[in-house]
Structures are given as structure tokens and as C-alpha cells.
Amino acid sequence: MISFEEAGRRVLDGITPVAESAEVAVTEALGRVLAHSILAPFAVPNHDNSAMDGYGVRFQDLAHEEKTTLTVVADLPAGSRLSTPLGQGEAVRIMTGAPIPEGCDCVVMQEEVERQGNLVTIPPGQKSRAHIRPAGEDLAQGSVVLERGRRLGPADLGLLASLGLTTVPLFRRLRVALLSTGNEVIVPGDPLAPGQVYDSNRTALRGALTALGVEVIDLGLVGDDRRELAARLDEGSDADALITTGGVSVGDHDLVKEILAESGAIHFWKVAMKPGKPQAYGRLGRAHFFGLPGNPVSGLVVYLTLVKPALLKLMGAIVEPPRRCRLPFRGHLRKKHGRLDFTRGRVHFAGEEAWVESTGPQGSGILSSLSRANALIILPEGPVELNDGDTVTIQWIDYD
Q1: How far apart are CA 35 and CA 309, in angstroms?
Q2: Mean pLDDT, to the nearest integer, of 233-239?
Q3: Read out DSSP for 255-305?
Q4: Where do you find CATH 2.170.190.11 in the chain?
Q5: What are the φ/ψ torsions at residue 98 (nearest 5 degrees)?
Q6: How far apart are CA 383 and CA 59, in angstroms?
Q7: What is the DSSP letter of 306?
Q8: In Å, how far from its chain's centre is CA 47?
Q9: Cα 221 → chain centroid
Q10: DSSP helix, strand, coil percent of the chain (3-state; round to 5)
Q11: pLDDT score of 252
């Protein structure tokens, strides 16, 4: 059995990101990974523009200790431009975002001025370059806008569109095969006999994989039939990754690990974590193989903490450290000496105060405890006793 940290290192060290890429429409790029860094083709904004609705003036025309009256020669809504330089004693009515005319080096907010006809009176105390957004304030021409390996979010898509881009180079989608195993597991919708459970693992993991943006190859559900199981595993071995649930512990009918040992390679199969001790990582064909425990909570916790970072690296994405922080705990919790523990918890907010509490009974089959959770409370390997006010480390639950 290896430590959780060692398992994470072995998985990430064994992964080489996909290399294939293609140009994809920006509108279809949400959640995908950039194959090349994007450089700004021009400065953003590409001209000095007004940060306020007001009046554009020449700073040298303004008196420093008394009011100044200027002649308004034009109105400039956003998107329009003055064709001639601003002359001595002149002002322009200017809207937010409108280009700054040549010769103008100060914008006075409309709330500060007095307007009568085509004359505007400016109070003293103005500053040169006031309320002017310079060209390149957001992005300098040629600067890196988005780096290779970035997973694109909604704001990123807007940024790409603001540069006039309609396509973007992306790594191809991962193909991830998913298989549930076990005689006791049946498809939702079928009559439930004593001793049977519905296959929640495949549904939950499919949702998690969809949130990650991969192509899911659903291999279905197979019982403890060695020949059929071997055929399904072979079918999934051509994917980028193959995830199974069940069949990796030490029971007589835990066949997945046996087949993997014969036809592929096992890099580890026990990890000192709770839940999730019985798991396997290795290779089968071209696929990275992740054998998850059959208990639904265990499978999802292993997915969140070990499998998801591996898939992100395989996608070509920059793998960020998990989002963790320290928060006060409310309630009472006791843990014996043993494995690293990921307790399901819920973070609550009241104004500027935040705290975390357990979601209740922590059995590895109690899926409702994970459904209610928005964080995992990380407890070290030694004995732990938590009481109200104790500080704990939490890891936010992020599926996307």
C-alpha cells in the first residue's frame, strides 16, 4: 500500500499529454484546452478612449483657479471619431468608450460642468489625462493573452472574440471509456431484487466526465464473467483512459485486477486513503487504466482527488493545485489512527463568516453524504479529535 501523495505522483509522472490539435470555433471552445498560446494581434483598446460620459478638452486651455468656458464643436457617441484635431478653446461632448480626439488630453465628467447651448463651463481643479483609458491598457500588441494549456472559460471566450478571433487551436477531446462491474449491480429501471443495488457509479462518473469536457465511451455494465469482462476491457483499451468501478479489491470475484495484471500493467492497487483504499492504476493497451472502488462514495472521492488531475494533464491542461483552505470546524468528529481521511463536509457562509461541518454518517456507500457536500475535510493519518472551533483543511469539490 502506498501513500496518497505517492499515488498522485506516480499517476502524474506516468502521463504524457495528447499532442493532436485542431482549430475549433470559439463558440464551441468552452472547457477545451488551448494547444498554443494566443498573442494579442493589436492593442486592446486600440485607441485612447473616454472612461466617462463628459466633455473632452485641451488641458492647456483650462484655468487652474477659476472656471473656463469652451465652445462645444461636436458630439462623440461610442464608435464615432472626430475627423479634425481639437482646436484652442474647443470641447467635444464625449460618451464612454468613444475615441479621444487628437489634441484632447482631459475628460471632464458631465456632472461637473454647466452647459448652455453650445457653451460648456468647466470648474477648476481638473487633471491632465483624467478619465482617459490609454490604448493598450488591457493588452499590449504581441502580449500573451491566454497561455497554452489553459482550459477556456466564458470570460476567455469573450476575450478571444474581442480580438476578432473566430477559431482557436485546441487539443483534441479525450476519449474516456467507462465500465461498471459486479453481479450485484443492475441497471436503473430494472426490478431490484434482494442483495442487488442500482448502478449509480456509472451515472455519477459520466456526469463528472461530461463536466470535464471529455468524450465518454460508455461500456455499460458487466457481471463477474471473466470472458465478457475481458472483452469489454479490451474494447476500452484503445481509449485515452479507461475507468472501471468494482473488481479491484481482494475478493474471489474481483476480476478486473487479475485481467489487468495478465493483459496490461499494474502500477499500484492500494492507497492509504479513506474512502478509496482498494483502487488500481496501470496501463491496458494505449489506455491509462483507473480501477475505482465499487462503493459509490469511494469511487467519486478517488476520481476527484487522483483521477481528475490525471485526466487534466492528459488533456494538455495546466494542472493547478487543488483548491484548499483552512476553516473553523463545527461539531464533533473523532478518527482513529489510520489512513488519510477525506470526510464529506459542507461549508456554510453567514455574512463574512465561514465554517465547515460534516454532512453526517460517512459510510462509503452513503451517497447522500456526498450529494450534500461542497468540500472534503482532510484529516491526517494519525488519530484526530475535532471539536467546535478547531481549524481544519478543506478541499473544495470541483467537478469541472
Answers
A1: 18
A2: 97
A3: -HHHHHHHHSEEEEEEBSEES--EEEEEEETTEEEEEE-SSHHHHHHHIII
A4: 49-133
A5: -70, 145
A6: 71
A7: I
A8: 33
A9: 30
A10: 20, 35, 45
A11: 45
Q: Which CATH architecture has domain 21-44+137-171?
A: Alpha-Beta Complex (3.90)
- Please give the Cα distance from 286 to 314 (Å, whole number): 12
Q: Of 238, 236, 226, 288, nearest to 262 (Cα)?
A: 226
Bridge partners, 381 (sequence order): none
Output the CATH code of domain 324-396.
2.40.340.10
Q: What is the pLDDT of residues 11-58, one digit of tens each?
A: 999 999 999 999 999 999 999 999 999 999 999 999 999 999 999 999
Burial 167-205 (b: 16+ CB within 10 A, else e): ebbbbbbbbbbbbbbbeebbeeeeeeeeeeeebbbbebb
Give the class (CATH, top level) of 49-133: mainly beta
| Residues carrying CATH 3.90.105.10, the chain | 21-44+137-171
Per-residue pLDDT tens digits for 264-280: 999 998 999 999 999 99
Q: Measured between alpha carbons, how far is 370 from 360 in angstroms, rounded to an integer?
A: 10
* DSSP state at residue 139: B
Number of H helices and number of E strands within the chain? 8, 28
CATH code of the domain occupying 4-18+173-315: 3.40.980.10
Residue 368: name the closest of 346, 398, 347 by CA: 346
What's the pTM?
0.89
Distance of CA 357 to the CA centre of its chain: 25
Query: Which cell goes with 66?
Result: 477659476
Q: What is the pLDDT of residue 36?
A: 98
